[in-house]
Amino acid sequence: MTQHDGREYSYHETADPHRRSLWITDVVLGGQDGLVNVLGVILGIAVATRSMRIVLVAGISAALAESVSMAAVAYTSSVARGELYKAERAREYRHIEAVPQIERSEIREIYARKGFSGPLLDQIVATITNDKNTWVSVMMAEEFELADVDRRASARSAFIVGCSALVGSLLPLVPFLVLPVMPGAWASGTLAAMTLFAFGAYKAKRTVGRPLRGGLELAGIGMLSALIGYAVGVLLAVP
């Protein structure tokens, strides 16, 4: 609770927790992907080579490549959504000019499905279609479910994803700095499972999921990847 002018306000009344939580998606995306991918790689290499030097070189290389790749993918995919929005918006402006009756009927259908009817529906349609910019904005949101993308926001999101991926990728390597190869591999898997569980539980707590279920799901995904990497290392072990 916070106080202002003698009154108490809850956190929800003084800030938007939904907007403040948007970064969680980027952190989980980068951290989970980096941790899971590098964990599978280093466990496979550890059991195949039993060489600490090879494990560390491969792990660091994979971590750096993973973080850059994840940041680039996050940025380019976001920019691509923005370009799609602009292309569809321009096409919608052309349609309003060429076939306004069809576009107007689509607005009517959209709001009729929402439960509006009679004079109120007529008023809504008339109000929206009275201004082309409003008309197109409604069509983009309601028909195509697209939103404009800010390149600065895309860059910020990509930075968070990249940093999270780097931290997540380096985490499985920590046990190898203090333990021999095979004990380090087991410790790395355990540390990764605990971290993924914490990630999943925290994300579920901040959103609408169940913390225990969210944690177990994320940890299960990570351990499946680790087992695949481990199995490949056993099959292709260096004599």
Structural class: mainly alpha
Largest sheet: 2 strands, antiparallel
How confident overall, as mean pLDDT? Answer: 87
- Rounded to the nearest angstrom, the radius of gyration is 25 Å
Uncertain segments are 1-6, 8-18
Contiguous helical run count: 10
How far apart are the first and last residues' alpha carbons, in Å?
63 Å
Strand order of the largest sheet: 1-2
Instruction: Bin the strand percentage.
Output: under 5%
Architecture overview:
- Helix content is 79%, strand content 3%.
- It has 10 helices and 2 strands; from the N terminus they run ββαααααααααα.
- A two-stranded antiparallel ribbon has the order 1-2.
- A hairpin with a 2-residue loop joins strand 1 and strand 2.
- Helix 5 packs across helix 6.
- The radius of gyration is 25 Å and the shape is elongated.
- The N terminus is likely disordered.
What is shown here, in short?
The chain has 239 residues and is mainly α. The protein is 79% helix and 3% strand. The termini are far apart.
Any descriptors?
239 residues; mainly alpha; two-stranded antiparallel sheet; 79% helix; disordered N terminus
How is the secondary structure organized here?
Layout: E1 2-4, E2 7-9, H1 11-14, H2 17-20, H3 23-49, H4 52-98, H5 100-113, H6 118-129, H7 132-142, H8 151-170, H9 181-206, H10 211-235
Antiparallel strand pairs: 1-2
Helix pairs in contact: 3-4, 3-8, 3-9, 3-10, 4-5, 4-7, 4-8, 5-6, 9-10
